[in-house]
Amino acid sequence: MNAHSGRRPPGRAAPAADAAGHTAADDALAEAWLSELGAQQRYSGHTLAAYRRDLQALQRCFPDQALDTLGEAQIRQALGRLHASGLQPRSLARALAAWRGYYEWRAPAAGLTRNPAHGVRAPRIPHSLPKALSVDQAQALLDRSQLPPAETPVERRDMAMFEILYSGGLRLSELIGLDWQPVRTPGHASHSWIQADEGEAVVRGKGGKTRIVPLGRQALDALRAWLEVRAELLNPRSDEDARAALFLGERGQRIGPRVVQLRLQALAQRVGLPLHVHPHSLRHSFASHLLQSAQDLRAVQELLGHANISTTQIYTRLDFQHLAASYDQAHPRAQRKSKD
Question: Which residue intervals define the domain Tyr recombinase in the entry (predicted)?
């Protein structure tokens, strides 16, 4: 069979489809792939749900064909249909990434000679500047400006999380995937962990790529303060994954992304920051502040785990804005005269 022509060989019947236009076999394969992403690569539930919808959209474009029979032409056609339906470039790029990832996983078992989504390019996504905190705002947040020191286990956990986000430039999914040490048991195998004695974190990021991220002194101090009380959030119902996890929720399981988001925003409000602070804001701040000081784009690319330096270059625009503002304030001939 030519797996990329989209045509079935003579005598082979089309796979049976249910009322929604999906084949039961395709649904089972998709769930197996998504389960693997969740269990082994720690993809967030939000991302998994989006990928599931993307695969279902591809199935709906070709309801009488199994996914294994689709070729590059069909992938392009499906992308075009989604674009015509009003899907925005960012969503189209995510859909294509989901399809490409699925076929990368499926191709060896299906006997496909190549990934049919590999040669298809996503539409260009307009780059928007990420929202980064100023250095003073980051300091106010992490110093708990005008608040008492973190004392309870939950407060110590929060400060360790936020310090590590800012010190290491981690993604939220990377943060919650950290273990407190490397663990390998029948029920759990670590893929990301802290090496406190070495002052670093081993992080597996997007695409399964592992990088080593240095952690600053204040992040390590906050981490040690949290590890002193971490066991207080464990309970008899904590599973093997939770017992390995660096950060725990109040129910004794690995902390979820939504909890991190809510706790960070609550702290930002308490210290009086006049803006919404998302965990990714600390990653953006990490990159922007490093570039302001070091001007080493390649180093920041490595620390962020970007596959392409073009992704990192967006932070040079943030840095230019910072320099331009300083220029306007400091240069005697930069300021425009008032028209009054």
Answer: 128-328
